[in-house]
Design brief:
This protein is of the alpha+beta class. It has a domain at about 15-70: Alpha-Beta Plaits (2-Layer Sandwich). Helix content is about 25%, strand content about 15%. The chain has 3 helices and 4 strands. The protein has helices spanning about 25-30, 55-60, 75-90, and strands at about 15, 35-40, 40-45, 65. The protein has a two-stranded antiparallel sheet. The protein has a two-stranded antiparallel ribbon with strand order 2-3. Strand 2 (about 35-40) and strand 3 form a beta hairpin. The radius of gyration is 14 Å and the shape is elongated. It starts with 12 loop residues before the first strand and ends in a 9-residue tail after the last helix.
Length: about 100
């Protein structure tokens, strides 16, 4: 999704290509298609498209992907919930991704 951006350069996303087994789970589950298989290993091809939802890391069988584990991830649901929290004064407890 080239049109969606959170904050360029802000996503905390790392891939250990040595550990990667090339299963392609990250390619399949990433909602913004930031991964691609290159030479039988995952590659991050659009890091600024990452919203830190964690789907890639959760579905990596060898834990080759690290995504910011902080509750302050950049996904749209969390951003909207925080804006609503400021308006309504009610706290939010994450994004439920």
């Amino acid at each position: 999704m080239k049109d969606f951006r959170y904050i360029d350069g802000a996503a905390i996303l790392r891939l250990d290509r040595e550990t990667c087994i090339g299963c392609g789970n990250c390619v399949t589950v990433c909602p913004h298609r930031i991964f691609r298989l290159e030479e039988h290993k995952a590659a991050i091809v659009d890091p600024d498209g990452c919203m830190e939802c964690g789907a890639c890391a959760t579905n990596c069988p060898v834990e080759a992907i690290f995504v910011n584990p902080d509750d302050g991830c950049g996904c749209a649901a969390l951003i909207i919930n925080r804006w609503l929290s400021r308006i309504t004064g009610k706290s939010v407890s994450g994004c439920n991704c």
